[in-house]
């Protein structure tokens, strides 16, 4: 029996672009990383995370290494709105920094990261 709760990246993006929800949004994304690139991924996210936390509307953003499989990381993030999250994913984000636009996605791809959306949820009483 297939797990009906599994969501795809495409399904997630479609929801972000079509929802009428105006409040805060949270998501958890699984990042399996090839074992040979785990340390480089850790160095990347430790450097990248402060740039994201500084973005307007970012309520929470952090990578967490899986307790059972150290080559798997969980990104837990929340944003003030879906439109702000889409800005974070867009070409104009983090202007003038080494992580501008799609740069982080390219770095993650080079490290063999294959993000898998795991959960998408509405955040109640969020503020920053």
UniProtKB/TrEMBL annotation:
Keywords: Monooxygenase, Oxidoreductase. One of its GO terms (molecular function) is monooxygenase activity. The keyword Oxidoreductase applies. The keyword Nucleotidyltransferase does not apply. Pfam families: ABM. Residues 25-117 form the ABM domain. This is Antibiotic biosynthesis monooxygenase. SUPFAM superfamilies: Dimeric alpha+beta barrel. It comes from Shewanella aestuarii.
